[in-house]
Amino acid sequence: MKRVTSVAFVLILGFIVTMAAACGSTSTSPTTISSIAVTGAAPAVGGTAQFTAIATMSNGTTQDVTSLSAWASSNTGAATVSSSGVVTGVAEGSTTVQATYLSISGTDAITIPAQ
User: Fold this and answer.
1) How far, in Å, are 32, 38, 44, 64, 91 from residue 48 at the CA level?
2) What is the CATH number assigned to the segment(s) 33-112?
């Protein structure tokens, strides 16, 4: 009985040491954003279209950051863009739609066609 108790104690101790080592000093580097791709179809004058912002991370994965991005249009006379990435055609012309997330920006050049 004493031998069984000693073996059980050693096994439990070994398990605890293994788990402590596994939880301990491993370091991982944070994933950073490499780029942002902005996509969407240009709406006609008076129409709207949802644009999306997809972040590509340094480890190769992607994340939809549409709702997390700050949106802008370079020519609000041609199109405006809402805080959620909805582009509204205002008048015929060209503009660049920009999404910025964590100081990284992506753009999509579009042309608003006449009605």
Assistant:
1) 32, 16, 7, 20, 12
2) 2.60.40.1080
